[in-house]
Amino acid sequence: MTHDRLDLVSKLYQPSGWPRVLRAASGATSEAPLVVDLDPTTFCDLACPECISGKLLNQGRFTPERLAALAEELVALSVRAVVLIGGGEPLAHRGTRRVLRILGEAGLAVGVVTNGTMIDKNLDELARYATWVRVSMDAGTAETYGLFRPDRKGRSVFDKVVANMRLLAGAKTGALGYSFLVMTRREPDGRTVSNHTEVLRAAELAHDIGCDYFETKAMFDDEHHVVQVPQDILDSVERQLAEAARLRSDSFQLVNSSTLTSLRRHSGPVQPKDYHRCRVAELRTLITPSGVYVCAYHRGNPLARIGDAVTDDLTDIWQGSDRGIVDPSRDCRFHCARHRSNLELERIAEGTGAAPLDEDYDPFL
């Protein structure tokens, strides 16, 4: 049976996580998260103008020894899945290869979100231990890539990243994804530049590389509100995705994020919430060199910080923290990918949810 990798609601019903899901649904605190986002570093080798984490880069670090210890602590906590992400570029930390080995050999699922420039230096571990690797590309040509994802000298490393993806496609045991964030920018001289015309070309390239999926996403602003785009751009993206549908097969999927769905529905940048506690915060959390945060949407927010993983053990942080310090009705009016999961957890608490599934299929809830 094929499952939608972005159907986060259905993932709540998997049997191995069900006891913790029930506990979170009831409003109780969990003994440990099921999923952890981990930023190994705040350094990045690219200089993307639209980077949502730009203000958080180059702030603090984990030593390789502490990063390895964190991986061991995640295993001890019975975390089921870890996403190596950022913040910075996760593969830029020389300790990430060891983290991949520790987590993978312990049987945890591992996802990696990367800009792809250092895949070759981490190829063996990525190929062997990564459940999935998603490469942020946002372009279908070197020229457009250089506009939106330049390196620190202003150059396009598009060809290098494509070559790295081909290496991984030939060696991987997990899934490889090509991520395309639809972006538009107003230049100082009044010109508007956009990457939206390259959606089809990028999807074709992803298919040619040997990727397992191509994901299209809408852009966030600094406050995580979905950036609205003119209707003609949205129509252009839709036409290209319709044409790209011919590429679909059992080995290649087209995936549309919830942010793109928000644009299609003209939902607007604000997503109101009428609940005051995020139950999902008991099921997943974010660990960075600058602190442990309630969730990735609040990366760098001191009001959502629940501990310091540079100095403290994760078990102590989790047991001693209050994940209820964030009030979604007040603090999370942006688009949240797990809003529907929170609503489903309410239904589970009320006894109106679905029955648990018979088997696990994807721990990244």
Can you put this structure into words, describing what you see?
The protein is an alpha/beta fold. It has one domain (9-26, 34-350): TIM Barrel, CATH 3.20.20. Helices cover 32% and strands 15% of the residues. The chain contains 13 helices and 12 strands. It has helices at 8-11, 18-25, 64-76, 96-105, 123-129, 142-148, 158-171, 199-209, 231-244, 258-264, 314-320, 328-331, 339-350; strands spanning 35-38, 81-84, 109-114, 132-136, 175-182, 184-186, 192-194, 213-218, 253-256, 284-288, 291-293, 305-307. It has a 10-stranded mixed sheet with strand order 9-8-5-4-3-2-1-10-11-12. A two-stranded antiparallel ribbon has the order 6-7. The radius of gyration is 20 Å and the shape is globular. The two termini are 18 Å apart.
List the helices and strands and how they pair.
Layout: H1 8-11, H2 18-25, E1 35-38, H3 64-76, E2 81-84, H4 96-105, E3 109-114, H5 123-129, E4 132-136, H6 142-148, H7 158-171, E5 175-182, E6 184-186, E7 192-194, H8 199-209, E8 213-218, H9 231-244, E9 253-256, H10 258-264, E10 284-288, E11 291-293, E12 305-307, H11 314-320, H12 328-331, H13 339-350
Parallel strand pairs: 1-2, 1-10, 2-3, 3-4, 4-5, 5-8, 8-9
Antiparallel strand pairs: 6-7, 10-11, 11-12
